Each structure stands twice: as C-alpha cells, then as structure tokens.
Amino acid sequence: MEKKQQPHVVMVPLPLQGHVKPLLCLAQLLSEAGLYVSFVNTTQSHKRFTNLETITTHFPNIHFECISDGLPEDHPRALLTEYFEGMKRETTPHFKELLLSLGRKSLTGSSPPVTCIIADGVLPFAVGVAEELGIPIFSFCVHSARFLWGYLNIPKLIEEGQLPFSDGNLYHSINGVPGLEGIFRRKDLPEFCILPDPHHPIIKFFVGETIAMTKTSGLILNTFDELEDSCIHHVSSACNNLYTVGPLHAHINSKLGDRARSIASRGSLYSVEEKCLEWLDSQQPKSVLYVSFGSITQTSLSQLMEFWHGLVNSGKPFLWVIRPGAIIGEEGNEGIPEDLLPGPTERGYIVEWAPQEQVLAHHAVGAFLTHSGWGSVLESIVAKIPMICWPYMGDHYINTQCVNKVWKIGVELEAWDRSTVEKAIISVMETKKDDFQISMDKVAKLAEDSISKGGSSSQNLDKLVEDIRKIKATA
Q1: Cα pseudo-dihedral 153, 159, 164, 166, rounded to 10
Q2: Predicted TM-score (pTM) of this structure
Q3: What amino acid positions are annotated as catalytic residues?
Q4: H/E element holding 206?
Q5: The domain containing residue 256 runs over which residues?
Q6: Degrees (nearest 5) of the Cα angle 44, 50, 85?
C-alpha cells in the first residue's frame, strides 16, 4: 500500500508585524494538525525575528526560509504602489527559485513535495508564480470581512457614480452595499478612493490584486462568523472557498494550553520589553490604560505630546508603546522630550514594544487606546478590554465603526487634543465602564465559542486542513 505523503504548505506573509503574526499563528495550527510548513520571510524581516528557536522547538514541522525582496537595502519599503510594484517585479524570480529549490529537496527526501501555497493576499507576486508552476494557492486576508467586502465593491461604486467624489466630504454615507448599511462612509474606503480619476493606475492595481484573492483555491480570513455575519456570506459568494478561522491567536492558544505562555510573543519583529509586566503586577485591577498605535502609524511630536498631556490629565496610570520610528522625522531618541523616553515613571511606563497579548490579559489593564488594526481589535475582544479607537489608515476606520456602533465595545477618539483624549479615557474607564463590559463579555463569548470544539472557526480550520490533504502534491 502506497504511503501517504505529508502535506507541505508554503506560507508567505507581507513583511509587516500585523501580517506576519496571524499567518504564523495559522502556520502553528497547521503544524499541530501534522502538516509540514515552510514559512517564507524576506531577508530583512527574517533578521528581525526575535524567537525563531523557541518556535521551531515547539513546532518542529515549521521550517523558516527567507528570500530577498529584490529591493536595495536603503529602500524605505513604505506601503506605496511603487513598493508593491517593485516587489512584483523584483521578488517574483526569488520566490520562484525558492519553490523550485524546495522541489529539488523533495527529490532527495529532505522535505515533502510542495502541496500548496498560502500567501498574504496583498502580495503581488505569489499568484502569478503559483500559476506558472502549477501549484494550488490559497489567499490569506489580514483584514476584517467588512473591509474586504467594501474593497470588493469599489468597481460597483465607480459604476454607480458614488466614486469618485469631488465635494471632499469623507463622512458622506456609501449606499447600496449589502451588509454595510448604516456604517459605511467614504472615510472607510481605502485612501486611494479620493483620487479623481477612477481609472488611475493605483486604483486598478490595488482593486485588481484584491479581486485576484477571490480567484484562488480558497480565501482564509482571520475572523469568525458570529462577529461579521452581515458580510461573511457576501464575501463567501464572491470567492471559491471561504475559511473563517479566527481569532487565530486565541485559536492556537486554546490548542497549546499551558505551552502558549512560553511562545506568546511569537513572530515579533521587535524586541519585546518583558519588564513592563512586572510593573503591571504592582498596579490596581482595571486601573491601567494600555496605549499602542501598532507597527505602521507615525505621528508628529506635537501629536504625541497632546496624547501625553491627555494621559497624564486623566489621572490613570498608563503603559504606552512608542516604537522607534513612530515619530515623524525621528529615527532614534535624539530630540525627543524626556517624558516620551522609554522607562517607568510615577505616571506610567513607556516601552518600545510590548508583549501585547500578555498585557491585554493582565488584570491591571482596564482599557486599550488603539489605532484599530484588525489584529489589535481581535486581541482586545478576546481579552475583554474596551477600546478607545484612533484610526490611522486603511481598515482602521471601518474597524472603529464596528467597535463603536455595531458591537458597542468602545468609542472613537474624534480628535487628538489633550482635552478630548482625557475625556475619552475617563468615559471608557469610569462613566460607561459597565455598559462596555456587558457588550464586551458577549462578543468575547462568541469568540471563545467559535474556536471551541464544534465552533464555527474550529470546524472551518478542520475543513481547511482536510482540503489541503486532498490536494495532490507538486513534486
């Protein structure tokens, strides 16, 4: 009887923290299911990984590979069209060669033949290479189903004349998108939708890449059905197969049990400051505001000082992440006021990067001031921590709408002056605390149920694994 070959999945994230972590969580879930995983980083992000040894010790089925993105060392790698077009042009041959080399390894028996690829949906080179080599490919979307559904409706909105617009009113409602009634505004669309020419190359590029995600063997979303039921079935109708398997960080934690503690900062591209957890141990329950604007957001020094004054004036102790490069024009700490330098003070604690999962789960944390990136929203939901949302770009705006108006588990920070910041903190941490907590407990329970045995995400993960096993490997 012929021995069954172990499935081999090649996984490729966009080299950003918010993209690497959920894909790595999925890699760990596939590893736990017995699949062999090659996790592909760019050379630059591979150098920054902080705990590769820990990951490979716990997950011997995960093997890390790295390829050059083909761009010069000094390239800013900002998320602009030129960057993605550069990756498509320069990274394609490197990714193709990696897949061919994995095929050669399989002939020597050092690894199984490649079964399929799971690629970050915004990577512009993966689908073309997969098609050329005849390898099945699944797309992974790090955004919410609502944001993706809005994105997919851009051609329809152009056809209907809702785009482009010339009056400059970003708060005008977008109509006619089922599942997004009452919460969808021009502001919640991608930034390029403000361009006056609907045929602009930037619009064609990004919309084309997004639609390409739906044409792959399947689309994997880091969400769960019960959280976004108004949009899930619409997205499902637009793609071949849909797998909603989130929240992925909670999903892998539930699989690992006690083992999860030792790898909770998995896949961090930043050096994590663990000592802040000891500082949290000394604080009163639900008294601390956690502040983090993610790995992309940049602000002016004057903006950060307004936040600092608002935090101090609220009277709440705070743990604040200010990563290197977060302040526009400041690469290091030179010129930054002492109040914003890393370290503990009597008012709060500033760190360059925090172990966010552990921080949100800590008994001392009572609220989260966030940029509303999808990963942060999901982590906040699982930890049952109400949010104060200060959206910055992309999906942050529609995520904030959901936090504020749909799930009612937080508020939007409508301005960043010190008075508004102070009032928002007091509102969430004092005045309306019980109301937010009731809603949060309800949403968190839905998340917990989804990853439990028989839950929607658990079943969808099982289906994904089963469907991968059914694919004949490419030698």
Answers
A1: -130
A2: 0.93
A3: 19, 120
A4: helix 201-213
A5: 8-147+190-260+450-470
A6: 25
